[in-house]
Design brief:
Number of domains of chain A: 2
Helix content of chain A: 40-55%
CATH superfamily of the largest domain in chain A: NAD(P)-binding Rossmann-like Domain
Number of strands of chain A: 8
Largest sheet of chain A: 8 strands, mixed
Number of helices of chain A: 10
Strand content of chain A: 5-15%
Oligomer: homodimer
Structural class of chain A: alpha/beta
CATH class of the largest domain in chain A: Alpha Beta
Radius of gyration of chain A: 21 Å
Strand order of the largest sheet of chain A: 3-2-1-4-5-6-7-8
Chain lengths: 275, 275
């Protein structure tokens, strides 16, 4: 197959590299910054530096730009996508999928939503990695695509290294992602804003490192993701504040029995999950 | 030197193994559960299964039990500690150090407080590791000990693999530990108490894993640590709730500029620290 990847940042670049490493598909790269494409070509991450016209020869188009930019790209160049399978990599789905489904009908392509559950605390093509998706979960949101199109995307995911595929709908996706991904990013940022943070060295170990890791955040991207998933994220933030307050109250009241009970409940949750 | 280690759990066991791996000191192990001592002897982690009388021949005594239990041990067996250097591994210092200093005067030993900044989300001798302290920070709280005693403990720390020694006082220790260690443990527990947690699989990746790791907590030990460091911990919890609230408000109000500014501030903090 010929696969066009639009946006060669950490995610798009990793798609290119993973496809080249694990399959014999032909990869066409599209990117605003041309230097990145030259680098990707010289790295063997893409077979061809593409432009809008190159989209016509692709079987699959993977959109790997920011969520809103993906929709804008399709609005603008939808006529080049006719007959193709188009997939995305946006971390929000309720906001994106209905627009994409509508555009797919207008322009005659199939849209299969997707969200690769992998990333790093750095970004850009320089952070891309042929093994970024290795063992990770590939969330697939079929929307109104045919079984054939959905299977093509799922198979491609497994072929390029994802450990598993999780099919879901936009609502479940956004509710779960608010918890698994967005909330840890809010927590990490809120955590490092403590006045103690700049002086942590010598006093810190693994737990500081782990909870603060993703605070090295791409502020522009994550602001967009948070705002477009407002309700589920706010719900998780409220739940978290309630849970922090329960523990705070037990500490403040010196209520050892209650405190042990809350911590034990957390411990049991992790044990039950085999973590 | 002859070194007695009291309490052969993850920390005490790691001290034994690290001393045997990196030095030629003689290690005497003391522990309530005798099976653990037999195992440690057969592993070569200790040279001798000790009892209270064995303390008399030690030059250094490392207390590696729960904080309060360390004080109780010294209250009970202080007469066996005369002339020795005694150190501990408690994660709280304002509560422990003054009592130990008083006991050191009563029984004629030198007390050097210490806190190895290393651990795992599991515990017990089975989790101990000769390399647990490798590259970690060894926090040393000299209290009223002589320079010679303090230097002996610092040198031993570096000799057995710690990457650095940080000298401090009980107040700074407890304030910083509330931020670097206790707060991440509260956050991890509060986080996994979300009703979404049991269903996270397929929707999660590194940020879930990192923020939730230490929720697999030893509820009894950490309840003791939280309650004995109440004021600094509560202060950090209040700061954190304020920071979470700032971010929540920006999301709720759809204030993209404010949200980006807060996330960028977090990003800059990590960048400045070279993380």
């Amino acid at each position: 197959m010929k696969i066009a990847v639009v946006g060669i940042g950490i995610i798009g670049g990793s798609f290119c590299k993973a496809i080249k490493k694990n399959t014999s598909h032909y990869v066409i790269g599209l990117n605003r910054t041309k230097e990145t494409l030259a680098q990707a070509l010289s790295d063997g991450a893409i077979d061809e530096i593409g432009d809008i016209d190159s989209l016509k020869k692709a079987d699959i188009v993977i959109l790997a730009t920011y969520p809103k930019a993906s929709v804008e790209f399709v609005e603008k160049y939808g006529e080049y996508l006719k007959g193709k399978i188009v997939t995305d990599s946006a971390g929000i789905k309720r906001e994106i999928c209905p627009q994409m489904v509508e555009l797919s009908k207008k322009f005659g392509f199939e849209f299969v939503g997707a969200h690769p559950m992998a990333g790093k605390e750095t970004n850009g093509y320089k952070s891309s990695d042929a093994d970024l998706f290795k063992g990770a979960s590939y969330i697939v949101v079929p929307c109104e695509a045919s079984d054939e199109a959905v299977n093509t995307i799922c198979s491609l995911g497994l072929e390029i290294g994802f450990g598993s595929v999780k099919k879901t709908d936009p609502e479940e996706h956004d509710r779960m992602i608010a918890f698994t991904s967005q909330l840890p990013h809010v927590l990490a940022c809120a955590y490092v804003l403590s006045p103690c943070c700049p002086n942590h060295k010598g006093f810190s170990a693994g737990s500081y490192k782990d909870v603060s890791r993703v605070a090295n955040i791409n502020a522009k991207l994550w602001s967009e993701l948070f705002l477009e998933n407002r309700e589920p994220l706010i719900e998780e933030l409220i739940t978290l504040r309630e849970n922090v307050t329960m523990i705070t109250d037990a500490v403040q009241q010196g209520n050892k029995e209650r405190l042990e009970q809350l911590l034990e409940q957390a411990h049991q949750t992790k044990e039950m999950l085999g973590e």
